[in-house]
Design brief:
CATH architecture: 2-Layer Sandwich
Order of helices and strands: EEHEEHE
Number of domains: 1
Distance between the termini: 48 Å
CATH superfamily: SUI1-like domain
CATH class: Alpha Beta
CATH topology: Translation Initiation Factor Eif1
Oligomer: single chain
């Protein structure tokens, strides 16, 4: 049984078949690479003037996004992270990332 604090707001139900919905979202199904519409940005905001390349638009599971982020970081030979559905790569690597993604089948990739 889940903790009672997760059910705040639900006091009582008279329905004998009632089951509380804890609001857990199911992960999105990962689209095929050819259907992904990835956008590649160059950004410096909030980074102390340092440049970062950001890949947005990935539709799929968190595990697949982390895997793609790891591949891009290794290909560029730099650090980075995966946060809030975006892949952040340190430095300006838009050309290299675009080429790599197109080779991997992400045909709808664009630099912005």
């Amino acid at each position: 049984m889940a903790d009672w604090k997760e059910r705040l707001g639900m006091v009582y139900s008279t329905n004998p078949d009632f089951t509380f919905d804890y609001g857990e979202e199911q992960e999105a199904e990962t689209l095929a690479p050819s259907q992904q519409k990835l956008r590649i940005w160059r950004d410096t905001k909030g980074r102390g003037g340092k440049v970062a390349t950001i890949v947005r638009g990935f539709v799929g599971s968190e595990r697949d996004l982390n895997s793609l982020g790891r591949t891009l970081k290794q290909a560029c030979g730099v650090g980075g992270s995966v946060k809030e559905g975006e892949i952040i790569i340190q430095g300006d690597h838009r050309d290299r990332i675009t080429t790599l993604l197109v080779q991997k089948g992400y045909s709808q990739t664009k630099k912005v």
